[in-house]
Write a structure and sequence with these properties.
6-stranded parallel β-sheet, 20 helices, binds uridine-5'-diphosphate-glucuronic acid
């Protein structure tokens, strides 16, 4: 406690000093990569008063951004981009080299996709590091925002050194992001904490200046070394993924025992040592982060000779949850899926995104079609993405069209639209009234009144 107070005091003093800087000594920031992390980070930093150049090698993306078209679905982002472009704090370019040369501080926010054996693929990060080295025309701070394996800071340092002009100086910093898709703008502007890993006093001071608008609002800035900052990101995501896998296992237990998972989650979450967050059971976690980061941490630990059993089993538990949903659907249809029509409500890995990466809907579609079912799918945002992977299932314009002629409706994503849909209308369109709610969001009183047979997760 004492340590935390001392840290806050020291930080506010440092912030006060940094705040005394004149406007024209503020660093110019560049962000390389305008995916959701880069775009939200760049826009957020512009919004708190910095001058930010967002760059990307994808000309099409930059063209769109320069015409006020946001290439991703992220609530609240479009007006914020516009506001900061209008205020001339935010600009977009496909000339990455020029953005690097103009900047004092460069955020690397390119992708680290999972490669074939589950490790983080570093080719994009390494390519950016090389470009930075080649354009190191003055001292720069190079910051990794993307989730990167522990030790990446050192690798980036080596790559930049190899390509940098003789005598050039620079600092490498780790500053992992904790943005959730769908609420990324809020998460950026009101974070629980900011984590920064540095290896020099100079880098520490610059990072304190950049995040001054946040520390002034008493948002904790955890400053540590690079390896610790890189590890914090993996530790956070793995813990959250474990929490979800855990409550999903409790839900499966409840289905057998007759206990109620919502009440358990509430009561367990009221223990302040645990917290109620991320204890919502569902069809298994998905997205571009948890599955990839849990797999990467397993690999990182195995590569250094560690067998971390708990972490290694999170993905197995999560896959079991996805399979369990398919079993529940099969069970509700008396064990036979062949020739059945199933309405799938929700394709995105969670609400308020069009992202279908690692979504449970993928497992569900694949397994149900293999077993001979016909799928009628609807999602408010993610249908185009799914259509590219599964062109042969039927895509519908709303939940009612999806339910038409269906033998069962399964709710996969917790969109508000599904909480609010008319169950009378859904029921009247169905061949038989059976509903599987993998998110426990549908009004069960209504379902009972309307003579639905319904299956929830971990509750009667
Ligand atoms: C996650 C983290 O929450 C962010 O802090 C982190 O920055 C991000 O990964 C990242 O590494 O970039 P995100 O993947 O956008 O964010 O989505 P979450 O809101 O965390 O949800 C992940 C999955 O867990 C979804 O499929 C969601 O439906 C599921 N979930 C979440 C549950 O099933 N139950 C819960 O209680 C919470």
């Amino acid at each position: 406690m004492l340590k935390k107070q001392t840290l806050i005091l020291l930080l506010s003093l440092a912030c006060y000093a940094a705040n005394a800087q004149p406007e024209n000594s503020k660093p110019i920031l560049a962000v390389v990569g305008t995916g959701y992390v880069g775009l939200v980070t760049g826009t957020g930093l512009a919004h708190v008063g910095h001058h930010v150049i967002c760059s990307d090698i994808d000309k099409d993306k930059i063209d769109k951004l320069n015409h006020s078209i946001i290439p991703i679905y992220e609530p609240g982002l479009a007006p914020l981009v516009q506001e900061n472009v209008d205020a001339q704090r935010l600009s977009f370019t496909d000339n990455v080299a020029q953005a690097i040369e103009q900047a004092d501080v460069i955020f690397i926010a390119v992708g680290t996709p999972m490669d074939d054996d589950g490790r983080a693929d570093m080719k994009y990060i390494n390519a950016v590091a090389q470009t930075i080295g080649q354009h190191l025309n003055k001292h720069k701070v190079i910051i990794t925002k993307s989730t990167v394996p522990i030790g990446t800071g050192k690798n980036i340092y080596n790559i930049i050194s190899q390509h940098a002009p003789e005598g050039a100086t620079f600092d490498v910093v780790s500053n992992p992001e904790f943005l959730r898709e769908g609420v990324a703008v809020k998460d950026f502007l009101h974070p629980d904490r900011i984590v920064v890993g540095v290896s020099s006093e100079r880098a520490r001071n610059i990072m304190q200046t950049i995040y001054l608008p946040f520390t002034q609002q008493n948002i904790p800035l955890v400053i540590t070394n690079i390896e610790t900052a890189e590890s914090i990101k993996y530790a956070s995501n793995t813990f959250l993924a474990m929490k979800i896998a855990y409550i999903n296992e409790i839900a499966r237990l409840c289905d057998k025992t007759g206990a109620d998972v919502s009440t358990i989650a509430r009561a367990v979450g009221l223990d302040s040592r645990i917290s109620p967050q991320f204890l919502r059971p569902g069809p298994g976690f998905g997205g571009s982060c948890f599955p990839k980061d849990v797999a990467a941490l397993s690999h990182i630990s195995k590569d250094i000779g560690l067998d971390l059993h708990l972490i290694n089993t999170i993905l197995i538990s999560n896959q079991k949850q996805k399979d369990y949903i398919v079993d529940q659907i099969e069970h509700a249809l008396n064990g036979s899926l062949s020739g059945k029509t199933i309405a799938l409500l929700g394709l995105a890995f969670k609400a308020n995104t069009d992202d279908i990466r690692e979504t449970s809907a993928l497992t569900i579609i694949k397994k149900l079609t293999e077993k001979g079912a016909h799928i009628r799918a609807y999602d408010p945002q993610a249908m185009a993405n799914m259509q590219a992977l599964f062109p042969d299932i039927t895509y519908c314009n709303d939940p009612y069209e999806a339910a038409t002629g269906a033998d069962l409706v399964v709710v996969v994503t917790e969109w508000d639209e599904f909480k609010q849909m008319s169950l009378e209308e859904v029921g009247s369109r169905m061949n038989q009234r059976i509903l599987v709610d993998t998110r426990n969001i549908i009004d069960t009183t209504k379902l009972t009144q309307l003579n639905f047979k319904y299956i929830l997760l971990g509750k009667k």
